[in-house]
Amino acid sequence: MMRATVKLGDYIWRPLTDSDADTEFVVAMRNHERFSKMFYHTHVTADQHRSFIRGADERGEINWLIETAKGAKATGLGSMYQIDWSNRKCECGRYAMLDPKLFHMTWVVSAFVGVEIMGLYRLYIETLEQNKIIARGVERMGMTREGLLRGHVFRDGKPLNVWMFSGTVDDWYDKQLRQRSHETWGVPQLISFEGQRLEPYRTQ
Question: How many other C-beta atoms can be found within 10 angstroms of the C-beta atom of residue 174?
Answer without folding.
Answer: 12
